[in-house]
Specification:
Keywords: Decarboxylase, Lyase, Pyridoxal phosphate, Transferase. Pfam families: Pyridoxal_deC. Belongs to the group II decarboxylase family. This is PLP-dependent transferase. Helix 1 packs parallel to helix 3, helix 6 packs across helix 8 and helix 14 crosses helix 16. Strand 4, helix 10 and strand 5 form a beta-alpha-beta unit. Strands 1-7-6-5-4-2-3 form a seven-stranded mixed beta sheet, with helices on both faces. The chain is about 45% helix and about 10% strand. It has about 525 residues and is an alpha/beta fold. Among the domains are: about 220 residues, Type I PLP-dependent aspartate aminotransferase-like (Major domain) (Aspartate Aminotransferase, domain 2), CATH 3.40.640.10; about 150 residues, Aspartate Aminotransferase, domain 1 (Alpha-Beta Complex).
């Protein structure tokens, strides 16, 4: 069977694919048959087995139209659900429709954006210019699009390792070789982040050979969840006294757990004084700088030596799309550049492959290029601001429900952490029971399918005193260090969310809460 197909047949298949996507998007919001629209539904065991264990076909299974129909039935019919307005689970925004079309166009062109004199490379240069302007980052910095926030952090911290760890010598000899030679470079490097920092920071530190034993997770300020600067300074001094080499603070411009934004300007001052690299993980929250009322919270982000951003988190583009920005272009280029002989021509601009780990690179910029032009800076500010207002409204609704729901943690962005507290006869539920209850509610809610959110956990010492003291049997939170508090976490990064969706979420949480509490052998009143 030929791979190629006639143009008219391809056009017909394209229309079929567009119809499939359109039905999917419509189905996430409403059902023509009047039934409740499910955020996601469980994949039947038989289908799981079919998808994972089907025999490798020796011959074509069927014509392409039939394959597309089967794809709609077996794959599109059981989505992750993050396009739904009732999906509150993770910070994965639904793509703007223009971004979906852009991915199709980019796949049709199928360029490798490693570099070279073709339009896709110039589109990426243009998009990076726009990102710097949107985020207020220096125009002279270097940047590269990557798969998401995790890789953006790896790329940025690799540049940090090159700058702070021995440069070209480190690339040649590695940490072990430098350690054998002794001297300043032989001292272990230490990186600092907060206990609320994303797990990808630890992954990056491990992958880069620094080691998680040399990643210091600094406590946060109770209630704000910002990295505690007094604790940071104490730890830096202690590490220096132990013969270690503090090299980097990895701050957060919007944690995924609470939306906390560290005091970036003060952390920049610390790094400047201590001779350390200042990295900011803005994968989720950096885009909040576009909202006028929040700009002051991002003061100091422009001073970062590196900044990681994830456009598929809050800029409404399809997965995958992230961005690594490094203030010193030479440092980023020297961290990765390795040119084989067959790439030494066509050098009008440095190749993007010199600034990251990928050689063959997809045309990620296409969706971002079209999305930014479709929405503009002001459009993004409006929609992101709306997400934040919806999160505030969710918290208002939680507080208005009285004792049955309680806000556990909140930040300036669009994340709300809360818990269900049952009215319970002649006794108050113990913290252990409450924690178990939140996990059970999340499990029931996810199986129910009308909404989706996930549980999370907080050290009791990170919470405001009023929240932390509840169910502890004592108001002395200091004595409760190490105790964990479970909560339900709702993230709003969806331009489709309405107040009705918020009401549905809380109603389903309370419904699942009653079922779960009764199932635990308690009496609800």
């Amino acid at each position: 069977m030929p791979v190629d197909i006639p143009a008219e047949d391809f056009r017909a298949l394209g229309y079929q694919a567009v119809d499939i996507v359109t039905r999917h998007l419509q189905g996430l919001q409403s059902r023509a048959d009047g039934e409740v629209s499910l955020t996601r539904k469980a994949v039947p065991d038989e289908l799981k087995h079919k998808l994972m264990m089907a025999d490798l076909p020796d011959e074509p299974v069927g014509d392409t139209s039939a394959l597309l129909a089967a794809f709609e039935r077996d794959v599109v019919g059981y989505p992750m659900g993050n396009g739904s307005a009732k999906f509150f689970g993770w910070v994965n925004s639904p793509p703007a429709p223009v971004g979906i079309l852009a991915d199709f166009l980019a796949s049709g062109m199928n360029p490798s954006v490693a570099g070279g004199d073709h339009s896709a490379t110039y589109v990426e240069h243009g998009v990076l210019k726009w990102m710097k302007e949107m985020l207020g980052y220096p125009s002279t910095s270097a940047g590269v699009l990557v798969s998401g926030g995790s890789v953006a952090n790896i790329v940025c911290l690799a540049a940090m390792r090159f700058k702070m760890g021995g440069g070209t010598e480190l690339r040649q000899k590695g940490f072990l070789g430098l350690a054998r030679e002794g001297g300043e470079w032989s001292k272990p490097m230490v990186v600092y982040t907060s206990t609320e920092g994303h797990s990808c920071i630890q992954k990056a530190i491990e992958l880069l050979g620094i080691g998680s034993s040399y990643l210091r997770k600094i406590p946060t300020v109770p209630g704000t969840f910002q990295l505690s600067i007094p604790h940071l300074l104490t730890q830096i001094e202690s590490d220096r006294c132990d013969g270690l080499r503090p090299v980097c603070v990895a701050a957060s411009a919007g944690t995924v757990n609470t939306g906390a934004i560290d005091d970036l300007d003060q952390l920049a001052n610390v790094c400047e004084k201590e001779g350390m690299w200042f990295h900011v993980d803005g994968s989720f929250g950096a885009a909040g700088v576009l909202v006028d009322e929040l700009k002051h919270l991002y003061k100091g982000m422009e001073r970062a030596d590196s900044l990681a951003v994830d456009q598929h988190k809050w800029l409404y583009v399809p997965i995958d799309c992230g961005c690594a920005l490094v203030k010193d272009p030479l440092v980023l280029r020297q961290s990765f550049s390795l040119l084989p002989p067959y790439l030494l021509s066509d050098r009008s601009l440095p190749w993007f492959s010199e600034f990251t780990i990928e050689q063959t690179r997809p045309f990620r910029a296409a969706k971002l290029w079209l999305a930014i032009q479709s929405l503009g800076r002001n459009g993004y500010a409006e929609y992101i601001g709306r997400d934040i207002r919806m999160a505030r409204e969710l918290r208002n609704r939680i507080r208005n429900r009285g004792r049955v729901l309680e806000v556990v943690a909140e930040g300036p962005l669009s994340v709300t952490c809360f818990r269900y507290i049952p009215a319970s006869g002649d006794r108050e539920p113990a913290l252990e029971q409450l924690n178990q209850l939140q996990d059970t509610i999340a499990d029931l809610l996810q199986k129910d399918g009308r909404c989706f959110l996930t549980p999370t956990t907080f050290p009791v010492e990170s919470l405001e005193a009023q929240v932390a003291s509840l169910n502890m049997g004592s108001s002395d939170v200091a004595e409760s260090t190490g105790v964990k508090v479970k909560a339900l976490r709702a993230c709003i990064v969806n331009y489709r969310v309405t107040e009705e969706d918020l009401d549905t979420l809380l109603a389903v949480v309370c419904e699942c809460g009653e079922v779960a509490w009764k199932g635990m052998g308690a009496t609800s009143r």
